[in-house]
Design goal:
Strand content: 5-15%
Strand order of the largest sheet: 1-7-8
Order of helices and strands: EHEHEEHEHEHEEH
Radius of gyration: 17 Å
Helix content: 10-25%
Structural class: alpha/beta
């Protein structure tokens, strides 16, 4: 059992045409600090080797307690990272002092999606405090169909995805467990993080989305 990522929030500051975020049937909200504490406990129990990813469907930096989350993780020797579009809900860039503060709280690197500001602008904001890992440019990168959710159904690949291969899961903002990070509609079983922490058991189960998905087949390790 491994954690693929946790969803600190499923609220976003943008509405990208290729993203199925607007099709979410789930309620929208922010993860509570109590739930985040449980995520850190589960992460350490799972023995993940890679940093804990704080995004799923939503913009991480909209969370009002994200500084507190990163600080708590750092205090428990858990390194965090996430993808961000670099802007807040008012579509204004955070300033360098904000990123300097996150750096002091333990954030070492972030991944960047250049939807609203340029990579050069974002680098200026970080001012060397935090490294940039992966960069996604929607104007230059080939966009997928999110397993047929934003376009034609994909031809499924029989090779197991990382969720099946690693018996991985996503913790949603409200503490529910999802078996796939692409499951925008939230069709996952009613399984909660408390149950997993109590039973220390989780088994990947295929969902309907698996029938039209060719994603997540790389050799990534968690």
């Amino acid at each position: 059992m491994k954690i693929y990522q946790i969803e600190t929030s499923n609220i976003c500051s943008l509405a990208c045409v290729y993203c199925p975020h607007k099709n979410q049937l789930r309620n929208k909200g922010f993860m509570s600090f109590d739930t985040f504490i449980k995520c850190i406990k589960l992460y350490k129990l799972c023995g993940n080797e890679s940093p804990l990813v704080l995004h799923n469907f939503g913009e991480v930096l909209l969370h009002p307690e994200i500084e507190k989350f990163i600080s708590y993780a750092n205090q428990n020797n858990v390194e965090c990272t996430f993808f961000t579009n670099g802007i807040n809900v008012d579509k204004k860039p955070f300033d360098s002092l904000f990123w300097k503060k996150l750096s002091k709280f333990g954030l070492k690197s972030v991944n960047f999606s250049s939807h609203a500001i340029s990579l050069k602008e974002f680098q200026k904001l970080l001012n060397g405090f935090i490294k940039i890992g992966r960069v996604f440019n929607p104007r230059k990168n080939k966009l997928g169909t999110w397993a047929g959710q934003t376009g034609k159904p994909e031809i499924p690949i029989t090779k197991p995805c990382i969720f099946e291969r690693e018996n991985a899961l996503v913790v949603l903002w409200d503490g529910r467990i999802s078996s796939c990070c692409l499951d925008v509609e939230g069709t996952c079983d009613e399984l909660w993080i408390d149950e997993i922490l109590e039973n220390k058991m989780y088994k990947f189960r295929r969902i309907n989305l698996c029938n039209s998905c060719s994603s997540m087949r790389h050799h990534e390790k968690l």
